[in-house]
Amino acid sequence: MFFFTIWSETLLYLCFSFLAGAFILRWIPTNSKPTIKISTSLQLFTVFSIALLSFIPLIQLIIHVAGMEGIGSAVESILLTFRIGNAWLFTFIICIVTAFYITIFGNDHRQIFIIGELFLLFLLTIGIAWSSHAGSIEGVYGIAIHTMHVLAVSVWSGILLIVGWFSSNSSNWLAFLRWFHPTAIGCFLLIIVSGILLMNVTTAGADYTDTFLVSYGQSLLLKHLFIIPLILYALINGFWMKQRIKKDPTYNPKPWVRVEFFIITIIFIITGALNEQSPPMNLETLIEHGGYAPLLNMFYNGSLEGSKVALIATDSGLFFAVIALICLIGSLYIYRMKKNATLSFLVSVIFVVLAYFAIIQSIVIS
Predict the structure, then answer these.
(1) Which of 53, 129, 204, 345 is a plausible cystine mate for 143, CB 3.0–4.6 Å?
(2) What pTM did the predictor assign?
(3) pLDDT of 109 above 80
(4) pLDDT over threshold 80, residue 1
């Protein structure tokens, strides 16, 4: 059930990205984007998928409560009295409204109707944030920062998703980059700010390095490591792609857009895992009841005793760090040499693996 829920969370984030990208690109003039065609039926399917996928985390809770109250009473109790149930009911209602709205106004390109779509997407995001760790811990404040985080990620990744897979050509790409590049920078800054605020909520009372001892911290570390190649591909698709297309108007930028989106998708998968793990609000208690992270057990050579982590320079750690840096530079070199984007993506994943090893080989637990 754990892995099933992670994949459902990933698909949920992808659905949000798809809607955000589709709605925003409908707002953009035709001469400032590639040729894009998205059917109303696909948008409706995505909306109903959000309703279904957001319900999956409730299934395990319903099964547990049903053992004591019966299935009917369990569903009623969870939907009406549990925060996660209230959040899903809200999400489901907004999904129904959004589906009707798309059916009626989905082909109308007047800005007032597109603003309505974006507002409904905002409400859907609130529904998801309502049931998040931050929402459970900090209430309205937690919901607000989680909503900001999800919206910023959805806008950035959603536009990449649509232009990467639903554009029939790469015409108007320079005009597209003129508005998308600053939009992506703004989204990234919002992600950083909201991400730090979310970390302060979910890891309150624990130093960042100390969280490496538990699964939540391990997932958080991997998520942050994948942000490094994400920044690299954002630079490639922003700054350097403009120069390349100016020199060669026939160059196809879509493979590199897809690579950037694939990195974001991996981050979505890790975020799905984070949502299913206990945040280290009380690290020592979490270790006592759940033990140390299985991933740490696999790759850490020292003694797993204690709850404090320090980073020190070690020969093996420095070795992995140097090789990781070479891989990161190699990803850029592959682009500069006009090689396959898939190869660059694989090298970036290797960078993350080696960077992870470098950090794990450099920690001391006390």
Answers:
(1) 129
(2) 0.91
(3) no
(4) no
